[in-house]
Predict the structure.
Amino acid sequence: AQSVTQLGSHVSVSEGALVLLRCNYSSSVPPYLFWYVQYPNQGLQLLLKYTTGATLVKGINGFEAEFKKSETSFHLTKPSAHMSDAAEYFCAFSPRGFQKLVFGTGTRLLVSP
Amino acid sequence: GAVVSQHPSRVICKSGTSVKIECRSLDFQATTMFWYRQFPKQSLMLMATSNEGSKATYEQGVEKDKFLINHASLTLSTLTVTSAHPEDSSFYICSARVYSSRPTASYEQYFGPGTRLTVT
């Protein structure tokens, strides 16, 4: 079965600290992987995506993620958290050649001063 | 570019009435749009895939007759919740599929801001 798992429904960090949000996927075909951010009562905004090629992907707002096939992971990181990063983050997966997105359950990032 | 709008942003209706939600791609054409439902503090659940000029494809468990989808043009898809009940209260989000050639060729989805439906 194809699925996405996000470890930790909530992650709390201090402002300036490293952000690490975990995502693992299960797929029988090569995946496209995405990270989206959602602010309260808003739609989703694409942070970054992996399709092919370089496994370290850089996105907007200083975020990056690394595709590790051997670990079936696509963890999201940011070196230094900012208060404005507080939001809900969704990892999503699409089997290559298909158009549907399968979303993880989301991780709420809390940033304290 | 790739802006998707939804209207209305919030709607409150009485049980038994129907509600229409519009999803528009503002600066591009989208042959394929998607409708999602999101319950509080939960992930997005794909309801259906809307293709311009053809019938929508519904996910398993989604009632076709209750959630009517029409994709009449390349910039507009509508979701009508018919005979709404309180359990239909939710956050509905649409997205439009866009082909992106950078950094590699793939499809992306751009999401609307969502519509919060409350059925009383």
